[in-house]
Amino acid sequence: MITRMSSLFLRTLREDPADAEVPSHKLLVRAGYVRRVAPGGYSWLPLGLRVLRNIERVVREEMEAIGAQEIQFPALLPREPYEATGRWTEYGDSLFRLKDRKGGDYLLGPTHEEMFALTVKGEYSSYKDFPVVLYQVQTKYRDEARPRAGILRGREFLMKDSYSFDLTDEGLAESYQRHREAYIRIFDRLGLSYVIVSAMSGAMGGSASEEFLATTPTGEDTFVRSTESDYAANVEAVTTPAPPALPVEGRPEAQVHHTPDTPTIESLVAFLNGAGLGREFTAADTLKNVLVKVRAPGATEGELVAVAVPGDREVDAKRLEAAFYPSEVALLDDADFTANPFLVKGYIGPKALQDNGVRYLVDPRVVPGTAWVTGADKVDHHVLDLVCGRDFTPDGTIDVADVREGDPSPDGKGTLVAARGIEIGHIFQLGRKFADAFGLDALGADGKPIRITMGSYGIGVSRLVAVVAEQSHDEHGLVWPRSIAPADVHVVIAGKDDTVREGGARLAEQLDGAGLSVLLDDRTATPGVKFADAELIGVPTIVVVGRGLAKGVVEVKDRATGERVEVPVDEVVAHLVDLVA
Amino acid sequence: MITRMSSLFLRTLREDPADAEVPSHKLLVRAGYVRRVAPGGYSWLPLGLRVLRNIERVVREEMEAIGAQEIQFPALLPREPYEATGRWTEYGDSLFRLKDRKGGDYLLGPTHEEMFALTVKGEYSSYKDFPVVLYQVQTKYRDEARPRAGILRGREFLMKDSYSFDLTDEGLAESYQRHREAYIRIFDRLGLSYVIVSAMSGAMGGSASEEFLATTPTGEDTFVRSTESDYAANVEAVTTPAPPALPVEGRPEAQVHHTPDTPTIESLVAFLNGAGLGREFTAADTLKNVLVKVRAPGATEGELVAVAVPGDREVDAKRLEAAFYPSEVALLDDADFTANPFLVKGYIGPKALQDNGVRYLVDPRVVPGTAWVTGADKVDHHVLDLVCGRDFTPDGTIDVADVREGDPSPDGKGTLVAARGIEIGHIFQLGRKFADAFGLDALGADGKPIRITMGSYGIGVSRLVAVVAEQSHDEHGLVWPRSIAPADVHVVIAGKDDTVREGGARLAEQLDGAGLSVLLDDRTATPGVKFADAELIGVPTIVVVGRGLAKGVVEVKDRATGERVEVPVDEVVAHLVDLVA
């Protein structure tokens, strides 16, 4: 295929768009790949659409390779199935809701677990039908609070979502693993740098959910990685290793001290170190008791829960939320303190909490035998040498303290450093939540129903165009990997005389004949303009047909490395065919 | 590619779905191509999605062949551009409207003229940039009052919409013609029977808009065609040939007669024929004056207009609406008659109308010299021999009388007969309406702006799946044309023994190796079930691998004709490759 720039619907821009901050947004607009038509809504111009379709092709090939079957749902969906799973309300403001002419409630699908579960229930009924993996490449809608960065976070976007249906947990684990491998192949073929991070710990089990994050300094998501191993995780998923328990014997008695005006950790540590106690205290020696209200889904009343973390750490809001999910969690307000007079603000300790039936959950570092300074449930008083397992017994552990660079890596190798990334894929062992909502069963060999277990797997297809651009560009423009470039070769006719023009056109036809796709710059613009546009557009190989033609050579330039070689014109087709293959 | 039915996500149904009336709907559901998920909302299962993609491919190839460039817009669009052209309100209840989390107004695009016009305005500015043709294959939304017939009339559907942008009317006419030819090639490749009908007459000019209607008795659209020529038109677009004018001289004087109790044409004709006037009257001799209110877009007040049609015809509501478009037109109610006492109901004549400044438009058959019986503006009185051009002069003609089978064809060849069809394509010379709304100009060679003129062209891509099914099926199931079939060959393994099973699998692999796509029925079902499913699914060629294999032959069956031939197993690959090519 030859695409002639003289008639291509493309106007490149010399200036960055005013609303663009990240490189991919600037360059995709400047190079004429996308245009903004609404907040979080973009049109795809011809070159952009080609890259998008190329990415779709890679995704489809790898999905087919693991036996996934493509189907397609509408984007406009009825309320009822989403009501049945609670997601009609759970999605909050992120869901686009609308009414039809008869007043019926509809939504624009943000993801399709409900529809796939119902469809499998409609078609399949026997254990012999399973497992099955279905997928679609389909337009999704989310009413983002802050659509940003062009197509990186839009409100309408293209997604590949797939769903696995298995009879057993082991089957689900296999389907999950196959998706994981397919995703690795997809992102490798796109030439991306990425990490696979544990996305959630706790309730869902360690490996039940992983995210693929493309590493880039402009990423919205923070994660941590080890300095010395492959370990990487979302901050929510980092598990703190528990230190070994210590012997209780021989530890000093717990003692209540008068610690006037010490409602904060800082004031407490300063007071203790000035109190002539004969030892040094740090914030890490204190135990901070934070009170939260936890409300289970559907419940009207919340439960009071105490979370204890070492005084040198804060409770991380996202980790707190993840730890209690799907319950909602909130800090206490003044009214709550008034209603619970045993809570002495600034001086809360485990005794009053446990005496009053408040669940007491502690950081994993609080193991038996560790001694703490903490509140004595009385204004201006703290207790020292309160030993876990002797003076108090926690109701459980909770891993919600903030994670810091320098913390030991959970796999025991190296320490953690923070990094930023963009979510490009998410794989998730859903389990039986959706099957339960719709009664999705298979009839077993023994005539008894088997509840199906599901996995859900997503790739942000349109986002990937921006992610690749974000990782692969330089100061001159985009640098597409060959697998998804809008053309194989960009032929620049650099000269106005007929020999050069005809030579360029003939070369384009020969390349087309050899099965390559060619972007041919046959415009009347100056060579300077054409070179700048070629760099901006980012086709991996640029061929300049110009003055050299008189000597029988053309210049072949590698967009990524900038390397140029002169190639005899009668060898250039074979040379380029080799290069592309 | 080999698709194995043992694992294909497909369950065929023996019974027609309860809500299906037309054959395509019944068969596409029974054969497992689509499933209903909401009113007017369908999911595409694997085989259906393949046919849809094949149709998309044909459409894209022919669009690219006329130089159209593919881009893609969001479906979720902001209100403002549609407000600027008046379509935000004009679409009425057919438009899905919604609000985002900030209360901003959005719509789900029913068609994208506004967005394409704005995009061209954003990119192009010089006369050298034009003409340009852009298109997309994109999901559209219309909140149909009565979604019906499965995917024939859905609320979410896939459409190819293209738009041409030209500097001159001649350029637009050429762009229109190129689309017309591309559409003919597309529908021919799909093997469809269709007619091209004039879609609108009057204001827009005769050939400014044509519809492609697939002819089928289950079609929603009525059209007329000539018994003796290629003439075909929507009822709205039929033009009535005017008879030659007659001489006025020597015609009897107009005379008012007392015609008691004759407010209807029927009662009037009966009275006249019993009045001993010495001649026979028919309804066609009378002139019926129908009063309407016409309200221009944006106007608050309507204008009173009289429409005169021969008494043997009714005013056709759709033709009336088309004749006054974009004004709105309504019949008079009692209050209007009370407010205009010169209107004597049942006895209205041209005199009182024209004396009171009411615009008087007449049927094309009312030419100078024709004499009519009509109202005398007085209860129980009519006037006879009122001669057009002598006793009254119409303010213009209007072609809104009903069209009947047997009417002469407007091209002078044969007479009209009624037929039914389904709209599959629409081509439309829009002119400058949208360019005017957005100030879409090109700077001319002389430095002066040139207002761009647009064409708009649509094909209902998803609907075509149903339309082909509607025209191509028999009592056993679907019969796909080769160009869009879900597979090239359906290989049925008819037997349980290993030789047959292995023979079928080997044949499928050989066919795959030869570049054919194969649907392989490797299920454990009985041959009877497999044969029935093969007929239902409708792949054009069915190969039965069964008992004959022992003699070295397989059976090749043509789905459309039912013809069967035995082919030696070592020749069958070559035979099928020939057949498919």
Key structural traits:
homodimer; 581 residues; alpha+beta; BirA Bifunctional Protein, domain 2; YbaK protein; Rossmann fold; 3 domains; nine-stranded mixed sheet; six-stranded mixed sheet; 15 helices; 32 strands; 26% helix
Query: Treating each run of at least 4 consecutive H or I residues as one helix, how many helices of chain A?
Result: 15
Biggest β-sheet of chain A, characterized? 9 strands, mixed
Largest interface: A-B, 52 and 52 residues
Strand content of chain A: 25-35%
Please give the oligomerization state of what you see: homodimer
**Coarse shape of chain A:** elongated
Radius of gyration of chain A: 30 Å
Uncertain runs of chain A: 201-206
| CATH fold-level topology of the largest domain in chain A | BirA Bifunctional Protein, domain 2
> CATH architecture of the largest domain in chain A, please?
2-Layer Sandwich
Decide which structural class fits the backbone of chain A. alpha+beta
How much helix is in the residues of chain A?
Answer: 25-40%
Could you give the distance between the termini of chain A? 16 Å
